[in-house]
């Protein structure tokens, strides 16, 4: 989940960078890759708890499981929030239609060819098509 965000952090100044990992081993592996000052949480603490406590405004770029993205989208609804969706992609080109996400306007986008990054306002968060 963190890979797409590393490019964002390298291309613009960031006020905070938060990463959630499953173990201390993962934390040790990721540490050299993450920007200075990164807040890393190890399960069972949710990274959303640390993020919501430490971030008040500004553009939000997030990647991770859909429940986490849903929490962030609800908290910052209408703000500049961009989500990178983690869907399984069989072909990666939109041919198989195996990675659908429902948009708020009722249309369907394909994560592989229309995304994987979407403004939070486009995603319905009930995307099982």
UniProtKB/TrEMBL annotation:
Could you tell me which InterPro entries the record lists for this protein?
Answer: Dihydroorotate_DH_ele_sf (IPR037117), Dihydroorotate_DH_Fe-S-bd (IPR019480), FNR_nucleotide-bd (IPR039261), PyrK_electron_transfer (IPR050353)
Residues spanning the membrane:
none
Q: Which residues form a coiled coil?
A: none
List residues of the Dihydroorotate dehydrogenase electron transfer subunit iron-sulphur cluster binding domain: 86-123
Q: Check the record and name the PANTHER family matching this protein.
A: DIHYDROOROTATE DEHYDROGENASE B (NAD(+)), ELECTRON TRANSFER SUBUNIT, DIHYDROOROTATE DEHYDROGENASE B (NAD(+)), ELECTRON TRANSFER SUBUNIT-RELATED
This protein is called Dihydroorotate dehydrogenase electron transfer subunit iron-sulphur cluster binding domain-containing protein
Q: Tell me the organism.
A: Candidatus Cryosericum odellii
């Amino acid at each position: 989940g963190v890979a797409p965000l590393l490019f964002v952090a390298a291309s613009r100044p960031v006020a905070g960078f938060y990463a959630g990992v499953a173990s201390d081993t993962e934390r040790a592996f990721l540490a050299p890759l993450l920007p200075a000052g990164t807040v890393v949480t190890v399960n069972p603490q949710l990274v959303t708890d640390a993020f919501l406590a430490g971030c008040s405004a500004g553009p939000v770029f997030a990647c991770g499981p859909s429940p986490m993205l849903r929490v962030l989208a609800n908290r910052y609804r209408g703000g500049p929030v961009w989500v990178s969706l983690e869907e399984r992609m069989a072909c990666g080109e939109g041919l198989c239609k195996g990675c659908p996400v429902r948009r708020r306007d009722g249309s369907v986008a394909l994560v592989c060819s229309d995304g994987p990054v979407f403004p939070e306002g486009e995603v319905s968060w009930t995307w099982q098509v």
